[in-house]
Amino acid sequence: MSFVVKMNGSQNNDIHGNFISGNGVHHVSRWSVKPSEMSKKTLNPIRAIVDGMKLTPNPEKPMIALSIGDPTVFGNLPTDDTVLQAMKEAIDSHKYNGYAPSVGYQKSREVVADFYSCPEAPLDGKDVILTSGCSQAIELAISVLCNPGDNILVPRPGFSLYKTLAVSMGIQVKHYNLLPEKSWEIDLQHLESLIDDKTACLIVNNPSNPCGSVFSREHLHKILSVASRNCIPILADEIYGDMVFPGCDFQPLAPLSSDVPILSCGGLAKRWLVPGWRMGWILIHDRNDIFGTAIREGLVKLSQRILGPCTVVQGALESILNDTPPQFYQGTISFLKSNSEICYSELSTVPGLNPVMPSGAMYIMVGIEMEHFPDFQNDVEFTERLVTEQSVFCLPATAFEYPNFFRIVVTVPEEMMIEACIRIREFCARHYRPRSQDSHELDQ
Ligand SMILES: *Cc1c(COP(=O)(O)O)cnc(C)c1O
């Protein structure tokens, strides 16, 4: 059966009904199944940009993708045997097939607490919430701190998930600038100028995706004073914590402050090289009792919507955190450093490119002097043509709200990194126009 619908011309397109002709009125099925407002507001800018690009590699050259932030794709960075063994034992124990509490097993929470606890910022089991990856940790943290109509402060350039989550929840996003000439430190004046009475949370991502930067202790102190002065809690995305190059020091944010309440988000994905295992956590730092029981209870309630991470991984956590040998972490870091150095030294001598040497994580950002590449409008066109001509794909930093840069993932095998840099050099040489020639042309 069908219902008569009064049609008003401009709404015709919205109705996906079946029209019945012949009797002079439009009939439409009573079915009306449409995607929710939330689903429509959930936008992944990386997909939006990449899907809009014409990515047709040069058939003469094998494709090299420097775009994927997954360290496992090339098979050159396996996780440690200890990690795999822990997982096998957890399965064989038959103890981890049931439901765990929504925030995770108490034992597993304690293991994470002990791993990250330090005298200046002590943690115990009740301060840890286990989540499905760091992504869910970020989602819970934003959800518990913010209401629709509030705003959050996020880095630019920055990881796109913060905005994707916030916008879908009706939370406004304000971007604070990072300064490439100061190793991607936060422009603190700009940051503070964005704060208003609707600001519910400051997101700090250290070490950074996409910059590979690592903040000094002094800089972290300055960030904390901005938060403290304005009474803004911090969401610290520390998923790359401890993934810093030798000679550089990762300082977690929480031990540096006793008054600013901090939700530190992390997980196994990057440091243990198992992003698919979906194990993350929130560390609740609240030594001044600002969050109190209310925020903790809020997090527990939110965790009950879906329940925490896979119980098998929870069972393996103790051994993963406590038995993985230091050589495993060191091996990953020295690989990432060596690849970053290769990439940096190759690209820093390419006219028109300005790579910024990272200090950690697994990325390097490269600035494009667009005025020297008149063949292209922007970083999206630049990286698109790099695929067409050289079969090298780098993510345009427009995906991180930062045009005229591109991001390279440094987890690829060394030979690939070298070959990619040679091809990028060739591409730039072909399209580079020196400025003097421009002005010469103008003179004529
Ligand atoms: C990869 C990444 C995450 C997500 O980690 P998962 O544990 O895979 O959800 C969060 N934040 C940043 C900055 C990342 O790069």
UniProtKB/TrEMBL annotation:
It catalyses: L-tyrosine + 2-oxoglutarate = 3-(4-hydroxyphenyl)pyruvate + L-glutamate. Its cofactor is pyridoxal 5'-phosphate. GO terms for molecular function: L-tyrosine-2-oxoglutarate transaminase activity; pyridoxal phosphate binding. SUPFAM superfamilies: PLP-dependent transferases (SSF53383). GO terms for biological process: L-phenylalanine catabolic process; L-tyrosine catabolic process. Keywords: Aminotransferase, Phenylalanine catabolism, Pyridoxal phosphate, Transferase, Tyrosine catabolism. Residues 62-424 form the Aminotransferase class I/classII large domain. The modification N6-(pyridoxal phosphate)lysine is found at K270. It holds the Pfam family Aminotran_1_2. Pathway: Amino-acid degradation; L-phenylalanine degradation; acetoacetate and fumarate from L-phenylalanine: step 2/6. Its EC number is 2.6.1.5. Belongs to the class-I pyridoxal-phosphate-dependent aminotransferase family. Transaminase involved in tyrosine breakdown. Converts tyrosine to p-hydroxyphenylpyruvate. NCBIfam families: tyr_amTase_E, tyr_nico_aTase. Homodimer. This is Tyrosine aminotransferase. It comes from Cyprinus carpio carpio. The lineage of its organism: Eukaryota, Metazoa, Chordata, Craniata, Vertebrata.
